[in-house]
Each structure stands twice: as structure tokens, then as C-alpha cells.
Design brief:
nine-stranded mixed β-sheet; Adenine-n6-DNA-methyltransferase TaqI, Chain A, domain 2; 526 residues; 31% helix; alpha/beta; binds S-adenosylmethionine; 20 helices
């Protein structure tokens, strides 16, 4: 069975198992499965926190039929080396074991809270049982409190629900640097028994993000609790964490970065005043210098194909790789060979003899330029130059945007291109150069290039309508200044959620600063 077929069977199986048990039995074991769309959204939102390496070992400590197993296999694909699924209920265990038998998934019929790890994991992803403390027998509660104390040095209240014990006990299963992702009730954020969880998240691990779903959005109709998702790393505590809120994990209604010292463990999370302080509005121009591609004056003369260059034996020092216009560029991800030449586009070269004297040029180049003297040299742009064959100078840019396009009304009307090659571009593109802070991030962590590219492609069509110009027939043009005005709060949000880099607003100036832990801060607009 394919993964899609397996997921279809799983959903049917889940319904059958739920229907076969009465609600009281389900409550005793907290058997409320994660809807597949929510599991997928959670796992997708986890991607930016994960290192790009493959060989991921995943633990699902309360697996049920495996809605997170399915979401992980769908989203991480080949990167998953194994999933270990623990499940206490025999029916769910048997169903899961059979269902996932042909995948790298091992089901174990154990109680997570009394099992010792025999191996450590890179990712723990869980929707643990929500069993209230009244549902836990006195002796079990005492054992759970004892285990939590010896693992974390935290005294947990007898009023804490089982999900709290689950999360705190998960740390011993995690490799150093491993990621924990927990879909849990949001109650711990505001009640006294939640102090143990607040303490754990501020002192035992590095809290990355907490997303609280809208209280009207009861995802688990049968469990009737409002939920949150917590991301943390098995690492020393950081200084701040992101708090988001709303129906969507990808596009929250509000986002705030709150320092842990401001949070405290005795108070409600987030403190009331913090939730009113949204992230500053940021524009594309806060992250990128945007320049139009070059106007050659005559593309048919100055831009040559690889075969023309070879036939004319033009010297490589006067040639720069240049991308075809958007119409002929069939990919949005330009790959590069080891010399920086595009791999998956037609190879074109710009003849660039800027600042040279004609008589000093190699004869092949000189002969070619002679051919253009009567035609190209007389064209308006060329005629206005000191040397008619001089060209504007541009460095290759990692991101490009087509200057105009027609959208479908939902997606961006223009194309964002990820350019791994050293090719520059003509003025049918806008070139996006990351500013100092983002540039450092992308240079030191190039794996983030594709994340940033995806975030650019997520800018909704209405933003382009707001800042750009729309012509008859839905044609939309974006000038560099208009592109710079696009709202990029989601990029800021993503940066805030990556572990080592934080954008923060400098209190005194209101300026955006990129803070890289253990280094000095760099201004976003430098
Ligand atoms: C809230 S459900 C989540 C199931 C699944 N992870 C999902 O997201 O759909 C919790 C699951 O944990 C199982 N469970 C309850 N107590 C457990 C324990 N002590 N150890 C392992 N699994 C347990 C329940 O049988 C149930 O299948």
C-alpha cells in the first residue's frame, strides 16, 4: 500500500476504533485522535526547526493509529530513518502495528510513563492523552510525580493532568539538540498546576514557540478543551520565545516575542500586556536591497547562447552568465554547476567589456563589437554611454522576481526564482540581495535559502495588488519600490522561530535588529 492509501485506511480504522469504545473508556485513556489536517499543519510548521539532515529518528509516545506518523512520513519523506510508536491500548497497538508494517515504523505496546528509553531520538512529536488528575489513581499519581521529580527536579502538583507528566518525561528520550513538538491542552498556561510545565519550559529546555489556538476553535470536538502546540529543543534555555495565537499555525493572527525573564513561572503565559504587543510590521525592503536587472541596450546583440560564444571563440573573461527572460526560464529553481553556471536553464552569456578600450580587446571580441557598431551602438541606451558597449554592473542575486505577470488571484502574480548559480539577469527581473543580517544567516546556514524562497512565494496575491500596479487583463507589474513595500511579517516570524537568530525591535529606536546568539547584533537595514 502506498502512503496515501495507508492514510485512507488509517482514517477509517480510527473511526471504527473510536466507535467501538464508549466515551468513558476513551476518556480514561485520553483517546482523542488528532485530525489529519491538524497533524499535517503541525508537522509542516515544524520543518524550519529541523536540521536538513536525513536519518531522522522519531518518537511518537502515544501513537494511537498514527496520525503524526502519517504526517511525518508525508512531510519528511526519505529523511525519516525510523519511527518508534508507543501505545498502551492493545486495540490501538494491534491496529497501528498491522497498518504501518511495511513502513520503517516500530509499534510497542507499553506505557510511556514507565518505560525507559533504549535509544534516543531526534524528534518527539505527540498528542499525549489528556487525562485529568481525577482519572489517575493515587498510587499512579505518586509514581508519576516521583518520576518527574527524579528526571527534571521539578515537583509537579497532584492536580496536573497526565499530559504534563508525559511532556516532562519526554526529555530523557531526546538526543541533545533534539526537537519536541507537543499538541496539548492550553490549560497549563493559566492554572496553578501548570507551574511545573512553565518551569520545565523555561529552565530545563530551550522553548522555541507556543501557539495557542483560538478558544472558539475547539479542534477536538469530543474532548472539549482549547489546545496549544509547544516546540522546544533539548538544549540550554534561550532568552526569549515566540508566542503566536489564532486558527492557523502558518499564519497566526498575532505573534509576539517574549523574554523568559518577563514571563516568570508563577504568572499566566503570556502576560496580558505582552499579548497586546504585536511584532513590528516589516516590509520586503527591510530584508532585501532590490535592484532591477540590467538593461543591456540590445539583448539580441549582447546576450549570446553558449554555441554562439563557442563558434565565435569569445574569451571567457568578457562573458558573464545571464539568465533567459522569464518566458524562457522554465524552472523557478536555478541549479548551478561547480563553476557557478546554470545547470537547468538554457546557458546564455552577457558580453561585458565595460571600461575596456576597443583596441586592447582580443581580436574575436573586437570583431564581434565591430559588427554592432552600425546597429546596436546607435540604439538610444548604448549611444548615451561613454563606451557604447559598457554594461551596468550587478552581482548575482540568490533571489529574483519576474518584473510582471498574471496571477490566478490567489498566488503571487509574479514568480520568485531561487538562483543558486552565478548568473545575473536582465531587466525583465528584479534582483533581491539579502541585507547584512539576512545575508549572514544565509551564508552561514545556506539550508535556509529554500525556506526564505518558500516564504517569498507565500506572499498572497492581495499584497501585490496593494503595492503594485495592475493593467488591463490582470497584468501586474512590480517596480523595485513597490516590491519593497510587500508585507513580510511572516518572514520575520520565521526568523524569530529559528533557534539561533532572532529579529527584535530595539527599544530606543524601534529599528529591527537581528540578534545572533553569542555574537553582536546587526541592524536589519544596514
Ligand atoms: C490523544 S490520543 C493521541 C493519539 C495519536 N497520537 C493522535 O495524535 O491521533 C492519546 C493516545 O495515547 C494512548 N495512551 C494513553 N495512555 C498511554 C500511556 N501511558 N502510554 C502510551 N500510550 C498511552 C491512548 O490509547 C491514545 O491512543
Amino acid at each position: 500500500m502506498t502512503l496515501t492509501e495507508t492514510e485512507e485506511v488509517r482514517e477509517r480504522l480510527q473511526e471504527e476504533l473510536d466507535a467501538s469504545k464508549n466515551i468513558d473508556t476513551r476518556r480514561l485513556l485520553g483517546q482523542f485522535a488528532t485530525p489529519p489536517t491538524l497533524a499535517n499543519e503541525i508537522v509542516e510548521t515544524t520543518l524550519p526547526f529541523l536540521s536538513p539532515e536525513s536519518g531522522l529518528k522519531i518518537l511518537e509516545p502515544s501513537a494511537g493509529t498514527g496520525s503524526f506518523i502519517s504526517a511525518c512520513l508525508q512531510n519528511f519523506g526519505e529523511r525519516v530513518s525510523s519511527v518508534t510508536a508507543l501505545e498502551f491500548d492493545r486495540d490501538f497497538f494491534k491496529a497501528g502495528k498491522r497498518l504501518w508494517a511495511s513502513f520503517p515504523v516500530e509499534y510497542r505496546n507499553v506505557d510511556f510513563t514507565t518505560t525507559e528509553p533504549d535509544v534516543l531520538f531526534d524528534l518527539v512529536v505527540a498528542n499525549p492523552p489528556y487525562v485529568r488528575h481525577h482519572g489517575l489513581e493515587t498510587e499512579r499519581k505518586r509514581q508519576l510525580q516521583q518520576s518527574v521529580l527524579s528526571e527534571t527536579r521539578i515537583t509537579i502538583s497532584g492536580l496536573a493532568g497526565l499530559y504534563c507528566h508525559f511532556m516532562l518525561l519526554s526529555l530523557k528520550w531526546m538526543k541533545p539538540g533534539a526537537l519536541g513538538v507537543w499538541l496539548i491542552p492550553a490549560e497549563w498556561m493559566s492554572v496553578n498546576y501548570g507551574e511545573a510545565v512553565r518551569s520545565f519550559l523555561s529552565r530545563n529546555v530551550r522553548l522555541l514557540r507556543i501557539h495557542r489556538f483560538d478558544s472558539h476553535d475547539v479542534r477536538f470536538s469530543d474532548a472539549l478543551v482549547s489546545s496549544c502546540v509547544v516546540w522546544f529543543r533539548n538544549d540550554s534555555p534561550g532568552e526569549s520565545a515566540a508566542f503566536t495565537h489564532g486558527m492557523s499555525l502558518r499564519r497566526p493572527d498575532s505573534s509576539t516575542i517574549i523574554s523568559l525573564s518577563h514571563l516568570g513561572i508563577k504568572n499566566k503565559w503570556p502576560p496580558p500586556e505582552a499579548s497586546d504587543r504585536p511584532l513590528p510590521k516589516v516590509r520586503l525592503k527591510d530584508f532585501f536591497t532590490i535592484r532591477r536587472g540590467i538593461a543591456t541596450g540590445d539583448n539580441t546583440f549582447f546576450v549570446l547562447s553558449e554555441s554562439e560564444v563557442e563558434a565565435r571563440q569569445l574569451a571567457p573573461e568578457f562573458l558573464k552568465p545571464i539568465l533567459p527572460s522569464p518566458r524562457y526560464l522554465k524552472t523557478d529553481h536555478v541549479l548551478s554547476d561547480d563553476q557557478g553556471l546554470p545547470l537547468n536553464t538554457p546557458r546564455l552569456f552577457l558580453l561585458d567589456c565595460t571600461g575596456q578600450k576597443l583596441e586592447t580587446l582580443p581580436s574575436e571580441v573586437r570583431d564581434y563589437l565591430h559588427e554592432g557598431e552600425k546597429t546596436t551602438a546607435a540604439k538610444k541606451l548604448c549611444a548615451a554611454r561613454k563606451n557604447w558597449f559598457d554594461q551596468e554592473q550587478r552581482l548575482p542575486a540568490p533571489f529574483l522576481c519576474s518584473y510582471m505577470g498574471r496571477g490566478n488571484g490567489v498566488d503571487a502574480p509574479v514568480r520568485f526564482i531561487l538562483n543558486e548559480s552565478k548568473a545575473i539577469a536582465t531587466n525583465s527581473f528584479l534582483m533581491l540581495y539579502p541585507k547584512a543580517s539576512l545575508r549572514v544567516l544565509l551564508q552561514t546556514h545556506p539550508e535556509n535559502l529554500s525556506h526564505v524562497w518558500n516564504l517569498l512565494r507565500e506572499i498572497p496575491a492581495e499584497e501585490f495588488r496593494r503595492t503594485g500596479r495592475c493593467y488591463g487583463g490582470g497584468l501586474q507589474k512590480m517596480e523595485p519600490r513597490e516590491l519593497g513595500e510587500l508585507d513580510c511579517s511572516h518572514l520575520l516570524e520565521w526568523l524569530n522561530h529559528t533557534t539561533d537568530f532572532r529579529y527584535a525591535e530595539e527599544a530606543a529606536t524601534g529599528q529591527l535588529l537581528l540578534v545572533m546568539e553569542n555574537t553582536e547584533t546587526i541592524s536589519a537595514s544596514s
